[in-house]
Target: N-carbamoyl-L-amino-acid hydrolase
Amino acid sequence: MVNPERFLTDLHELRQFGASGIGKGVVRPAFSDADVAAREWLMERFEAAGLRVQVDPVGSVWGLADGPSLLLGSHSDSQPEGGWLDGALGVIAALEVARAAKESGGPAVSVVSFQDEEGRFGITTGSTIWSGAVPLETADNYTDRDGVRFETARRRMSHLVGDWVDPAQFTGFIEMHIEQGPWLDKAGEAVGVVTDIVGIRDMRITFEGEQNHAGTTPMHLRKDAVQGLIAFGTALNEMLAPVVTPSTVWTIGHVAVHPNASSIVPGKVTFSLQWRDSEAARLGQMETIIRDTAVGISANRGLSVTFGEMLGLEPVKMDGRLRDALSDAAEAYVSGKWRTMPSGALHDATNVARHVPVAMLFVPSINGVSHAFEEDTSEEDLVAGLNVLDGAVRRLTN
Amino acid sequence: MVNPERFLTDLHELRQFGASGIGKGVVRPAFSDADVAAREWLMERFEAAGLRVQVDPVGSVWGLADGPSLLLGSHSDSQPEGGWLDGALGVIAALEVARAAKESGGPAVSVVSFQDEEGRFGITTGSTIWSGAVPLETADNYTDRDGVRFETARRRMSHLVGDWVDPAQFTGFIEMHIEQGPWLDKAGEAVGVVTDIVGIRDMRITFEGEQNHAGTTPMHLRKDAVQGLIAFGTALNEMLAPVVTPSTVWTIGHVAVHPNASSIVPGKVTFSLQWRDSEAARLGQMETIIRDTAVGISANRGLSVTFGEMLGLEPVKMDGRLRDALSDAAEAYVSGKWRTMPSGALHDATNVARHVPVAMLFVPSINGVSHAFEEDTSEEDLVAGLNVLDGAVRRLTN
Model:
C-alpha cells in the first residue's frame, strides 16, 4: 500500500532544493545547482526503493524496475519562478507507487524525472530528445535567453550520465500533475482524467526599424519597433477572434527592446509568441494569421520583420485503456468528485507517446495558479491523486 | 581667429574616449571610465587654454575666464549608444572660441561640459542640479536602470571635485549642438538659430496583473500586463491625436516585462513614457490623457497601475539679444543657408536659462540621425558652425 505520510515528506524534502520566494515557491531551472542537487537526491531515493538508477545523456533521471514495466513520472526542474508541485508531484507520486509495489511484491513500476521540461532551452527538452523527435545534435545548438548553449549546460551533469534508456521495456506511461488551471478548483473536484494534451507553437518575432532621437524625430518619420509591437498585438487579437475557440490561448510573454532607453526611439524589439490549441489544423491557421499580420504591420511602418525557428508539438490523444484504468480508480476513490478534461498545458507525456501508450491524471491547483510562487494544492487532494494513480496501476497490472 | 584644424583635431581626440561601434560611434555614459577619462582630458585642455579649471560636486567640468564672461559649452557624456558630436561638438567649439579669444587678447569666454546631460539618472542631471531646479539631496536618490544611485555614481569623480561655480560671473550662455533632426540636412542648410527649446515630460508606468501559466489560463480569465501595455499604446495614440501638433512627440522607449518567459502570462510590465511639446499647456493636457488612459485600460483588465515620479522641464524661449547676434553672424558667414527653428531636443541651455540669458546654434545631422552610432555632420558644416559661434561672441563683446 502507498504511504501518504512518506509521500508528503519526500515532496517537502524535494522542495528544499531551490526553495525560494513566498509561500512554497521554488527556483530550480534545468541544470542550476539546485536542479542538479535535487536529481542527485532523487538518484539516492530511487536506489533506496530498489530501482536501478540511470541518468541519460541529457540529464533525465530514471529508476528502472527489472523486465517489462509500467513507467510513471514527470520532471523535477522548475520555471525561473515556479511552485513546489509542478513536475515534482508526478515524480514523487511515481516514486511512492513504485516503492510500495516493490515492498508488496507488486507490479514492476519504473520512474522517471525528465530534464528541462520547463523549456529553459526548448520545449520539454529532455523528453523531446529521448523520444527521438529532435536529434541531440540539433538540440545542442539551442540557447537559453542568456545565450548559453544546451550542449554547454548539460555538461554540468557529465559526472552522472550514462546511456539512453530503451523505451521497449515500458508497457505504458502515466503522468500525474497539477492541473495548472482553474477548473477542478472552481468545481471543488479532486481529480481530472485527461482526454488529450493540446498542441503548442512557440516562435520569436523581431521587428527592426530605426533607432533615433526621441525629441527631434517627428512621429510621421519614425520607424519605431515598439509601436510596431503595439500595433501587431492589437491587430493580432482582432484577426484571431474569428478562428479561435474559448480554450485556444496565445501569449506574448517575453519582450526585449533595443536599446531600451526612454530618450531613444526604439530601433528593435524581439518578442515571443506562443499559441496552443487541441486541433493541429487550427494551430496552422493561427500561424498563417500571425505571420501575415506581422508582415502587414511591418510593411505599413517601414519595419523589417524576421521570424525565429518555430518550436512546436502536436496535440496528443490519451490511450483508452490507461484512461479507463484512471477513470475506474477515480470513481472508486473519489466517486462523483472527478471529471475528464483536456490538458491546456504541455507535458512530457506528449513526447513519451511516440514510444508507448500514455495517460495523465490531474489534481486541482488552488485558484488555478501555477508557474508562480503561489502555486499550491491541498494535502487531501494530493493524497487522493496518489491513491487514484496507485489504483490505476493495480488495475492495469492485475 | 579660431583655428578649424585645431578644433577638428580636438573633436577627434575627444572621440577616442569610448570610441565604439560602427562609423564614429561613442559609448561614454556619465561616470563610466571613458567619461571620467574624457573629463580629465578636458581639464588639461582648458588649463592649456589659460582657463581656470573647476569641477563641481556633480562632475561638470568648467574652464573659467577671469571676471565677468560669456559662457559657452554643452556636455561630453553620451547615450548608451551615441555619436561623436552630441554634446562634444558644443564643448570643443567653446574651447576653440575661448582659446582663440585668449590668444588674441579678445573677450573673456568661459567653457563648461555639464555632467549626465543624456539622463542616465535624471534629465540633463548636471545642469539641472547646478541651476537649482532640483536639490542635490533629491537627485542623490535618483537611480539608473540598474538601480545604481546617483550619489554612488558621482563618487567616481570625488578625487576631482571642488565647489559649485557661481553663475553671477556669466553674462550669457550659448550652446552649439547638432540638430539631431532632419530639417537642416533635408534643406541643405548649414546653420539653425534656435527660437525656443521644447518642454519634456518623462514618467515610468507600471501595470501589474497576474503571473500565470500560458497554456492553462483561459484568455478571458487572464490579467496579462503585456496585453495591457499593447491596449494602452493603441488607445493612447487615438486619445492624443486630437490635441497634438505635427511637432509634438511621445515615445515608449524602455520596456521591462516580468518574469519575461514565453510560457508565462506576464504579471508585470514597467515602461517609460516621454512626451515633448513647445507649449506647457499642451504638455499638461497630454499628461491628463496619459494618466486617464492608463487608469481606464488597467481597470478594464483587472490590472493595477502605478505612475513613477514625473521628471520634466518647461519650454524655454531663447534670449533676443543673443539670438540676434547668432542670426547676424549666420547671415555674414552662411548667407541664405540658415534658418530659425525650435529645438525638439532638450539641452543644458534649458537649465542655464534659470540664471542667465541663453541661446542655441544648430548644425545639420546627416539624415537627421542621432542617439545612434551612425550620427555625423560634414566637416564643412562643423567649421561653419564654429565660425558663426565665434562671430556671435565677437558681436556680443564688441
